[in-house]
Amino acid sequence: MRACPIVAAFVLMSMGGATFAQEWTEFVSKDDLFSTNFPGTPQITQSTYRSQFGADLPSHVYSASLGPSRFSVTVVDYRAIEKILTEKAKACPPGAETCLGGSNPGSSTGAGYWKVDYAGALIYATHQFMKRDAAITEFIWTNIDLVEGHMLHLTNADKKSRTYASIFMHADRLYIAEATVPAGAPEPGLFQQALGWIDENGKSIRYQTLYHHGQPTPPRAR
């Protein structure tokens, strides 16, 4: 699924009568443990992401544009989900089970439903795309370097632009890669196929078997 070599291409554009070339280059984030291709250097914005059960999680949005086309990778840090929702549950009214969740060690939900939130992060993020004013033309299971995820293609209602989204959970982080291109434009392959995983030392990661979010990490293939 993943394009392993570093991809570089020149895209010709016209602006105000002047034609110029913009280079696609590999971008690596050691903070958020991923690599991908962007047209130029992306802008990095700190933000928060509201999870399914109301945890405001820290996130980074990496974004770039190429003419009318837009590209972004949003990375949401789920490592504090237990702490945040356990603390939030303390403010729930007495007996409000749908707010409190289960505080016993063997509970399947966890306090504040943090276990459910954590386990369902990939599905919840995917559902947010399904709620858009757009027609879903493709929705499939996928993987990048054996990290499983979801892929969606949407035709947007406004100007019939196309959105291509890939969603993964890896190392307790949610990754949402999104590209939107005008009607008639080719699929953004340089962006779609470039996402990859790195460790704290910047080394690329590929597993020997499928990586399932919330399950033991399989051995690396390289």
Q: Summarize the main sheet.
A: 7 strands, antiparallel
The first-to-last residue Cα distance is: 16 Å
Query: How many distinct helices?
Result: 5
Give me the side-by-side strand order of the main sheet.
Answer: 4-5-6-10-9-8-7
Order of helices and strands: EEEEEEHHHHEEEEHEE
Helix amount: 10-25%
Computed CA radius of gyration, to the nearest angstrom: 19 Å
User: Mean of residue pLDDT?
Assistant: 89
Structural class: mainly beta
Overall geometry comes to globular
Q: What portion of the residues fall into strands of 2 or more residues?
A: 35-45%
The tally of beta strands, per DSSP, is 12
Low-confidence stretches: 1-21
Characteristic key phrases:
222 residues, mainly beta, seven-stranded antiparallel beta sheet, five-stranded antiparallel beta sheet, 12 strands, 15% helix, globular, disordered N terminus
Structure in words:
The structure is a single chain. With 222 residues, the protein is mainly β. 15% of the residues lie in helices and 43% in strands. The chain is built from 5 helices and 12 strands. The strands form 2 sheets. It has a 7-stranded antiparallel sheet with strand order 4-5-6-10-9-8-7, covered by helices on one side. A 5-stranded antiparallel sheet has the order 1-2-3-11-12, with no helix packed on it. A hairpin with a 2-residue loop joins strand 1 and strand 2 (18-29). The longest helix has 10 residues, at 121-130. The two termini are 16 Å apart. The model is unreliable at 1-21 (pLDDT under 50).
